[in-house]
Amino acid sequence: MNETIRKRKSIRKFDMTALDEATLEKVQSFAMSAKPLFADINYTIELTEKTKGLGNIKAPHYLIFKSETTDSSQENIGFIGQQIDLFLAENGLGSCWLGLSKPTESDTAGLPYVICIAFGKPAEPLYRDISTFKRKQLNAISEGNDLRLEAARLAPSGLNGQHWFFVAESNKIHCYRRKLGKITGAFLDKIERIDIGIAICHIAVESDNFSFTPEDNAPEKKGFIYVGTVS
Predict the structure, then answer these.
(1) Cα(81)–Cα(134) distance, rounded to whole angstroms?
(2) Phi, psi dihedrals of residue 186, rounded to the nearest 5°
(3) Which residues contact 209 (CB under 8 A, 6 or more apart)?
(4) Would you call 153 helix, strand, or coil by DSSP?
């Protein structure tokens, strides 16, 4: 398994010293080169030094993700953002998805806001041992056998909810997210769509050749909504 997936963690304490320009340019360059899950969705990634909102974490830098609104825009942002999250960890920088933070008034122009990632030099240990991950057992979130499912199991999600499911068959992985009611959906739909995009990113990292498309004959999974199939 990818070494960064095995040891990354969300960082919540940062050294507030700003990163140097060369490092910020490196981060921005990678962010612009990250591969989308859906190539036809328009999105932007903006660098800022301040966000606000409930549960906001103080960090020297933030990446603001904005996107046009489609049925798959949140999944797309989760997939793109997690590539950046892994890149930051690989390069000695900490990061944390912030589901309840939002841009300041000066950052609200352009496409609709989706989510942000805080990042910078960590003020706590950057990595952890795989034995310390608090995750569901693999058989609770998947069926079938595919080595890539373990990488999906280790993916971060809102409150470690892991409200996803995967069905592996014939070298394919069918991906699902939890079906929400009207009340829970009003609060959690966006986050859980982003979460499944994050998990699919981990599968992509572990794939020699990755493609993701909806299939007409994908199996149904009670209590879940089909998102697409990795093949």
Answers:
(1) 21
(2) -65, -30
(3) none
(4) helix
pLDDT over 90 (residue 117)? yes
Q: Which of 38, 132, 49 is nearest to 76 (CA)?
A: 38
The domain containing residue 100 runs over which residues? 3-120
What are the pLDDT digits (tens) for 161-207? 999 999 999 899 999 999 999 888 888 999 999 999 999 999 999 99
Q: Are residues 9 and 111 in the same domain?
A: yes
- Regarding whether 139 and 115 lie in a shared domain, the answer is no
Number of domains present in the structure of the chain: 2
Yes or no: say if 117 and 99 are a contact pair by the CB < 8 Å rule: no
Q: Are 97 and 56 in contact (CB under 8 A)?
A: no
Asked whether residue 93 carries a pLDDT value surpassing 90, the answer given is yes
Count of C-beta atoms within a 10 Å radius of residue 82? 28
